[in-house]
Design a protein that fits this description.
heterodimer; A: 146 residues; alpha+beta; Alpha-Beta Plaits; two-stranded antiparallel sheet; two-stranded antiparallel ribbon; 8 strands; B: 410 residues; alpha/beta; FAD/NAD(P)-binding domain; Enolase-like, domain 1; 3 domains; 5-stranded parallel beta sheet; 30% strand
Chain lengths: 146, 410
């Protein structure tokens, strides 16, 4: 299955992926009205310091701890994609407590949201990848071994 | 065709069904459900009273779960006994059910100390099941004065859930602090202050010794008048079925890391069990939802012939009250090191180059990075732990480890 992978050597730390993510999931047509003067709540986050930067989003693990741990049964997997039913989530953050990748953050309303690879929004494929100026984030098939 | 029987219909049972079906798509699965509800999320009962969810959204699985997984559910019946020789259980109405593999997922029940005069109290409720919450909801009004006995997770979540629907809430506990099972003295003080600022009154180091209708006489000599009493002193694992069948039990049904009991062809999962705690290094009851699912899934896989092992269970809780969030995990064993800021406390417990446990209050971002250090027994000298204390970040790993985590399928 295709997933989002990050080549940290190529990451510029520009945070464009965060903006593209927030826009793609805003449901709005115009980036300016979607994001201007607003605090954004993207589903991908750039971590790092002044030397190293890299973007982190859901790994869509083979054996996702978040699904097994969700107290509301709000997280499930369909066609390999780990999804959250925001209608069922109560914002207890147990998924944040168990995700070993630190990949999950709540939305503006305190309810969890997560990368679902932009498959259900207007983008149809990950907006973070499409908009990455240095191709540091890619969307491809990779195996379990290095 | 293999016959599977699961006693219980909670999270562990769902884990068990999904574990079985990950291996065996055809075997017969029978679920014995004492509650007359399809599986729902028990930890959400306080969110229900708070209006943050409803009965429909509390369903832990979709309406077609049992049908999709080929399960027969027997509602409103209790298992009365297990006969491991005959590989049969008998229900409370006398119906026998034969099994090739049995999972005991009977959960726990509220522990109610023998309070003098408790029978004179009209409105009293435990706070564990959906029916408890619905019963409480039927009697509470804006004029209700509520006394909650027990300042643990259950009692305090109940307090949060009903605060805006009642006149006053008093919480008493024999312990000298709130959440004594997951917080140390200093952290409990921070949380207690926050709860008090949100209108909850506490009587700690004190408990009711006698009830006289709507009055509680406390150990300290004080009296508390109330309209509704919530009993949240603690829970006890339902171990009797396995014990009476000759299986090994302690505070819970003893299971190994394959979730096998000491009885042949009998597995157990969830709050009724006592299994290995990887942070503490011995067996204990870890009555939390993630553990129930993971044990259930492990048991189910093994019942269907897999050789699954669940050997990194640890206690862990993520819980918030009135906007203050906290996360705790593992054992508070070893040397304590602390990071404090204006709105947050983080305490880490370190022993033998390993993170054994933590308490985070007010700052919980990416806490799973800490949890994984405990579960995966990360040697702290292989990561930048000095940085990690301040920031849960993937920057603490070497580039090689990061490439494994983010450059490969995981």
């Amino acid at each position: 299955m295709k997933r989002v992978y990050v080549n940290e050597e190529w990451c510029l730390g520009c945070h464009l992926c965060e903006y593209n993510c927030a826009f793609a999931n805003s449901g709005m047509r115009d980036m300016v009205s979607a994001l201007k003067d607003k605090k954004i709540f993207p589903r991908i986050h750039v971590e790092g310091d002044d030397k190293i930067t890299f973007a982190v989003s859901c790994r869509h693990c083979t054996d996702p701890l978040c699904i097994k741990s969700c107290i509301a049964g709000a997280i499930s997997k369909k066609d390999g994609v780990v999804r959250i039913d925001r209608n069922k989530c109560v914002g207890c953050l147990t998924c944040v407590l168990v995700c070993p990748y630190g990949a999950l953050t709540p939305g503006e309303d305190g309810i969890m949201q997560k990368c679902e690879l932009c498959l259900e929004n207007a983008c149809g494929k990950p907006a973070c990848v499409t908009g990455c100026p240095n191709k540091a984030i890619v969307y491809e098939e990779r195996s379990k071994t290095v | 065709m293999k016959r599977y029987v699961i006693i219980g219909n909670g999270t562990a049972a769902v884990g068990c069904v999904e574990g079985i079906r990950s291996i065996d798509k055809a075997g017969e699965i029978t679920v014995v459900s004492e509650e007359k509800h399809s599986v729902y999320s028990r930890p959400l009962i306080s969110y229900y009273l708070e209006g943050k969810t409803d009965l429909e959204r509390m369903k832990y699985r979709g309406d077609t779960f049992y049908e999709d997984n080929g399960c027969r559910v027997i509602y409103g019946k209790r298992a009365a006994s297990i006969d491991p020789e005959k590989k049969q259980i008998v229900l409370d109405d006398g119906t026998p059910l034969c099994y090739d593999a049995l999972c005991v997922a009977t959960g726990s029940r509220p522990f109610v100390p023998p309070f003098e005069g408790l029978q004179t109290v009209e409105n009293k409720f435990p706070f564990m099941t959906l029916d408890d919450a619905l019963g409480l909801e039927r009697v509470l009004t804006k004029q209700s004065r509520v006394l909650i006995v027990g300042a643990g997770l259950i009692g305090l979540k109940c307090a949060e859930g009903i605060r805006d629907r009642v006149k006053s809430i008093t919480v008493c506990d024999l312990a000298d602090r709130v959440l004594s099972s997951i917080l140390d003295v200093d952290c409990a003080a921070v949380v207690q202050r926050h709860l008090e600022e949100n209108g909850i009154r506490f009587l700690l180091g004190d408990t009711a010794v006698r009830f006289d209708k709507a009055t509680a006489r406390m150990k300290s000599g004080k009296t508390v008048d109330f309209d509704i009493l919530v009993l949240a002193v603690g829970v006890r694992a339902n171990t009797e079925l396995v014990k009476n069948a000759g299986g090994d039990v302690n505070r819970g049904i003893l299971i190994n890391t394959k979730c096998e009991t000491s009885l042949p062809f009998v597995w157990a999962a969830g709050d009724c069990t006592e299994g290995f705690d990887a942070s503490f290094g011995g067996t204990r009851v870890i009555a939390i939802l993630p553990n129930a699912y993971m044990q259930g899934h492990t048991a189910g896989g093994n019942m269907a012939g897999d050789c699954a092992v669940f050997d990194n269970a640890i206690p862990m809780n993520s819980i918030g009250f009135f906007g203050l969030h906290m996360m705790t995990a593992g054992a508070y064993d070893g040397e304590m090191t602390e990071e404090r800021s204006e709105n947050a406390v983080k305490r880490f417990f370190i022993k033998d180059n390993l993170l054994k446990g933590f308490i985070l209050i007010g700052e919980t971002e990416r806490a799973g990075i800490y949890t994984s250090m405990i579960r995966e027994k990360t040697q702290l000298d292989t990561i930048d732990f000095a940085f990690a204390r301040k920031n849960a970040s993937n920057l603490i790993y070497s580039q090689k480890i990061r490439r494994q985590k983010f450059g490969n399928e995981v």
